[in-house]
Specification:
Layout lengths: L2 E9 L4 H15 L5 E8 L7 E7 L2 H7 L3 H11 L3 E10 L3
Antiparallel strand pairs: 1-3, 1-4, 2-3
Helix pairs in contact: 1-3
């Protein structure tokens, strides 16, 4: 069953450009993962400091595999998370 993740990121003051660069690099890497079906970074029209990440994986295991990749550990956990004021993550399954 398709596993969907929606994450909201809000960078700390002065970190927006660094987060943008991380997200560009992260997008390229995640889209190469065999279990990734879709990875889209959205920016709020109301608040340009708010990002919404929409991710689809073939199944929950593909998402768990994603979290073990070197790029997730380096770019998300190592580089992005310390620069974020807020990070929310919500998981869903596709309702058919």
């Amino acid at each position: 069953m398709t596993h969907v993740v929606v994450a909201r990121w809000r960078p700390r003051d002065g970190q927006i450009e660094r987060i943008e660069a991380i997200l560009r690099e992260l997008t390229k890497e995640i889209r190469r993962e065999p279990g990734n079906l879709q990875f889209i970074v959205n920016r709020s029209l109301d608040d340009p400091n708010e990002f919404l990440l929409y991710e689809q994986y073939a199944n929950e295991q593909a998402f768990l595999d994603h979290r073990q990749t070197p790029h997730f550990k380096t770019l998300v956990l190592g580089q992005a998370v310390p620069l974020l004021e807020r990070r929310e993550i919500h998981a869903f399954s596709v309702f058919e």
